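R.M. (postdoc): so does anyone remember the format we settled on? I'll just put the structure tokens first.
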């Protein structure tokens, strides 16, 4: 199915279910309609629909939550349709820049976000573009170090310890995935785009500093020197070996906790240990909610988001294995009792939000391709850093 066909299929499914709803809206049995597209999991969406219906009963609205499993960029076309969504719920924050550039995001109304309610400034930074807020954080995620308690009694304190133990008991993860390796590469002074008080400077790229070269060297050594994994490593290989009990360590996020535990692993999770005495700052991913600028019912759409966010903690933790973004969410029993998930919150405290501007798309392929060449032994760390920097700069130029 083509991309356009997928978009049309989602829109038609919405229309068939609730009529000509969404931004144009129509009335049925005295009720106005709101359409919510959700990028959450099916189990989460079922419960979010119940909450949305509760809000609808109190406000004389019919609310339909439509699962969107397509590519996030499909929203740009759908949001301009008369039957497009009023609300998008669960969008990864790094898509906000593309939507804002396309003039599809309504700025968050004053008073909707009380920053003191949130766990850290980084979740607010994730929804801020050029000093303005375009989404409301609903959940967050950051990676951690998985360890098999049958092979390792307690969580290691340093990555050097992970490597040392890994030589005997195994350590594998997808080192070609820049999302997973970012913190290890930049812990000694690197960054993607310089953050100037909420504005990311795409002309100040920190991917070719002495610190990042040292980070690339660490990644290279895992494969070429320590022989902990082969150059064809990917996440499926690393995860399967950890699930089979063949390796003591694996780096991933809360989305893989259930699968690993279902495989019978006595799982422990900790924040990524220090590297060369430096705190590792992985990427932070934030799921957000926002209102379509083309919606004719923006005030009610924001009110619905507020209601959902005030009542979603149990759903997001139990059904989605997600980390709450609010202090009250992390103080809840449902979160505190989920020990494997709550540990990721410690990692999230040190995490850096993925860039939320369109230029971030220039990062992924150069990083992946050059790291692959590096761990194959074709590039040294310094050349890898220079190549990635040069290719990101060129990629951004091509986007202009």
């Amino acid at each position: 199915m083509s991309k356009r066909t997928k978009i049309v299929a989602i829109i038609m499914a919405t229309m068939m279910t609730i009529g000509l709803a969404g931004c144009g809206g129509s009335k049925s049995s005295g009720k106005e309609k709101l359409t919510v597209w959700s990028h959450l999991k099916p189990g989460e969406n079922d419960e979010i629909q119940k909450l949305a219906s509760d809000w609808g009963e109190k406000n004389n609205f019919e609310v339909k939550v439509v699962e969107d499993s397509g590519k996030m960029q499909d929203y740009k076309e759908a949001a301009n349709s008369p039957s497009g969504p009023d609300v998008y719920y669960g969008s990864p924050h790094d898509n906000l820049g593309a939507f804002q550039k396309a003039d599809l995001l309504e700025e968050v109304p004053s008073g909707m976000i009380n920053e003191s309610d949130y766990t850290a400034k980084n979740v607010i930074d994730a929804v801020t573009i050029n000093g303005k807020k375009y989404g409301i954080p609903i959940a967050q995620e950051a990676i951690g170090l998985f360890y098999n308690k049958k092979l390792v009694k307690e969580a290691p304190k340093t990555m050097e310890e992970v490597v040392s133990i890994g030589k005997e008991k195994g350590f594998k993860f997808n080192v070609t995935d820049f999302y997973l390796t970012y913190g290890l590469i930049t812990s000694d002074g690197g960054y993607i785009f310089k953050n100037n008080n909420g504005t990311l400077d795409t002309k100040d790229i920190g991917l070719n500093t002495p610190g990042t070269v040292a980070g690339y060297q660490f990644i290279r050594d895992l494969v070429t020197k320590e022989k902990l994994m082969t150059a064809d490593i990917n996440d499926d290989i690393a995860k399967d070996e950890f699930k089979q009990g063949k390796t003591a360590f694996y780096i991933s996020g809360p989305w893989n906790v259930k699968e690993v535990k279902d495989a019978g692993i006595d799982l422990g999770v900790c924040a990524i240990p220090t590297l060369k005495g430096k705190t590792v700052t992985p990427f932070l991913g934030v799921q957000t909610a926002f209102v379509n600028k083309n919606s004719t019912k923006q005030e009610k759409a924001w009110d619905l988001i507020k209601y959902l966010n005030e009542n979603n903690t149990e759903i997001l933790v139990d059904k989605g294995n997600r980390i709450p973004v609010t202090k009250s969410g992390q103080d809840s029993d449902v979160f505190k009792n989920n020990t494997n998930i709550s540990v990721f919150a410690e990692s999230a405290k040190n995490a850096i939000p993925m860039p939320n501007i369109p230029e971030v798309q220039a990062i992924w392929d150069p990083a992946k391709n050059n790291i692959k060449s590096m761990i194959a032994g074709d590039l040294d760390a310094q050349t890898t850093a220079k190549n990635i920097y040069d290719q990101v700069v060129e990629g951004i130029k091509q986007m202009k």
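R.M.: ...and that's the designed sequence above, right after the tokens. Also worth knowing: The first strand starts at residue 32 and ends at 38. Residues 1-22 have pLDDT under 50 and may be disordered.
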